[in-house]
Amino acid sequence: MQANFKAQLECMDCKQEYDINEIIFRCPRCNGLLDVRHNLNALKTYTSEYWKHLFDNRFRMEYPFSSGVWGKKEWVLPELKNHNIVSLGEGATPLVPLPQYAKELKLNELWIKQCGISHTGSFKDLGMTVLVSHVKQLIELGKPIKAISCASTGDTSAALAAYASFANIPVIIFLPQNKISLAQLIQPISNGAIVLSLETDFDGCMEIVQEVTLDKESGIYLANSMNPLRIEGQKTVGIEVIQQLRWNKPDWFIIPGGNLGNVSALVEGFVLLKETGIINSIPKVAVAQSSKANPLYRSYLNKFQTFEPVKAQTTLASAIQIGNPVSYKRAKRALEISNGVVEEASEDELANMAAYIDKMGMFLDPHTAVAMVALKKLKDKNIIKNNESVVIISTAHGLKFTEFKVNYHKNQLNEVQAKFKNEPILLPPDIKKVKEVIKQKLQL
Ligand SMILES: [Zn+2]
Question: How many CB atoms sit inside 10 A of residue 418's CB?
Answer without folding.
Answer: 18
